[in-house]
């Protein structure tokens, strides 16, 4: 019997959302020397809390170990940079930010977003726990401190008169094992009339589009609007607006302020809560159906790969994202199906995928081996990758995606 407790409401976790067996840490890439060493594998078992319906993983590895030397640099995706630049334009106008404002981004990565605030001379501070990534931001001239964010750091910054007019927290909430400490820190760091924007992949999209591969050990929690609203309300923080975004396969951007009786709340908030309810996200039973759909998808994918193999077709991968490692390990896809994958990031080239040990090559390798199919592992960037690699059509190559279904793109 499972006796783990919900990280928000402390109810016991008894109901499985999806059990993906055991898997290595999704970003623990292997170097050549590591090929003869054993890798740690951890259970990748998500539960849904029967009380607050928060979908979550148990914590098997500390954030300190996961993010100590991190290989995800935001600036290698042109799509993501455009998203960041557009956000800065929107935020500057909407919140009337000036040279006397203070912007603080939590999990600021390599300065991919704050660089655009700096160009506008709006004071900004990044908080980034991964030291190697924070150093990349500092080299760009983006003011960054390399620490984990929580209420303790928020109090220290507040005591130095560093409260924020705008707090940006993109794709970090899922990475936080201690939600109470993190949200309390947001409350502490926010000026009385300030605003927080949080972006995170939307659980509704994960379920609807079978995006099970976004489950990995770095993501401790998976949020619906209702579950986040409950957590924020506990700290007297109010969602005043919400936008649905296309990033990461479908994300939410929340606009949050200190609770106040005169707050104006956009009708989009209630509309989206209603939409989640209509899709069953307020019913435990809806969560318990998910695993069967993923089992069927796994069978469909393996059938396609086996048939391609029997026809002597070569399939290689594009990308080395964390989500790809979840998928390949759960499906049991190794070098017999995928002899290599390519990635534009030089930080990943020459390494091997965790668990499967599939080598990561430079994209130029595609022109040498002329594969029949290019399997797009970061499916959220499919348009960008199809455009970048359109040259594979010269030899009759086709693109392949396997989330939310097996699909060949001519």
From TrEMBL:
InterPro entries: Methyltransf_Zn-bd_dom_put, Methyltransf_Zn-bd_dom_put_sf, MeTrfase_14, SAM-dependent_MTases_sf. Pfam families: Methyltransf_13, Methyltransf_14, Methyltransf_23. Keywords: Methyltransferase, Transferase. GO terms for molecular function: methyltransferase activity. Residues 247-404 form the C-methyltransferase domain. GO terms for biological process: methylation. The keyword Transport does not apply. The keyword Hydrolase does not apply. It comes from the Bacteria. Residues 6-67 form the Methyltransferase putative zinc binding domain. This is Methyltransferase family protein. It comes from Baia soyae.
């Amino acid at each position: 019997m499972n006796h783990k407790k919900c990280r928000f409401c402390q109810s016991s976790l008894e109901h499985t959302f999806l059990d993906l067996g055991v898997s290595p840490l999704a970003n623990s890439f292997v170097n050549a020397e590591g090929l003869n060493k054993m890798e740690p594998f951890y259970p990748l078992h998500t539960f849904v809390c029967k009380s607050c319906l928060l979908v979550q993983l148990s914590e098997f590895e500390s954030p300190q170990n996961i993010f100590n030397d991190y290989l995800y640099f935001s600036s290698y995706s042109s799509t993501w940079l455009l998203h960041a630049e557009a956000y800065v334009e929107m935020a500057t106008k909407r919140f009337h930010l000036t040279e006397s404002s203070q912007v603080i981004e939590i999990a600021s990565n390599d300065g991919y977003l704050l660089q655009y605030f700096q160009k506008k001379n709006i004071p900004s501070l990044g908080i980034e726990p991964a030291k190697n990534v924070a150093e990349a931001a500092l080299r760009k001239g983006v003011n960054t401190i390399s620490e984990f964010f929580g209420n303790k750091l928020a109090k220290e910054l507040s005591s130095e008169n560093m409260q924020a007019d705008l707090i940006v927290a993109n794709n970090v909430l899922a990475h936080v094992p201690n939600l109470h400490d993190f949200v309390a820190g947001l409350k502490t760091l926010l000026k009385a009339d300030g605003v927080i924007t949080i972006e995170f992949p939307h659980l509704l999209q994960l379920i609807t589009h079978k995006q099970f591969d976004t489950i990995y050990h770095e993501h401790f929690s998976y949020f619906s609007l209702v579950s986040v609203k409950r957590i924020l309300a506990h700290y007297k923080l109010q969602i005043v607006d919400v936008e649905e975004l296309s990033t990461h396969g479908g994300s939410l951007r929340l606009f949050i302020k200190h609770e106040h009786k005169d707050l104006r709340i956009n009708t989009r908030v209630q509309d989206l809560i209603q939409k989640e309810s209509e899709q069953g996200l307020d019913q435990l039973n809806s969560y318990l159906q998910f695993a069967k759909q993923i089992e069927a998808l796994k069978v469909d994918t393996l059938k396609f790969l086996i048939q391609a193999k029997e026809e002597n077709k070569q399939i290689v991968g594009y990308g080395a994202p964390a989500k790809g490692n979840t998928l390949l390990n759960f499906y049991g896809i190794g070098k017999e199906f995928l002899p290599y994958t390519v990635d534009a990031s030089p930080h990943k080239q020459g390494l091997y995928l965790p668990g499967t040990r599939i080598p990561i090559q430079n994209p130029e390798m595609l022109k040498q081996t002329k594969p029949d199919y290019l399997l797009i592992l970061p499916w959220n960037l499919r348009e960008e990758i199809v455009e970048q690699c359109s040259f594979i059509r010269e030899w009759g190559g086709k693109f392949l995606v396997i989330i939310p279904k097996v699909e060949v793109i001519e």
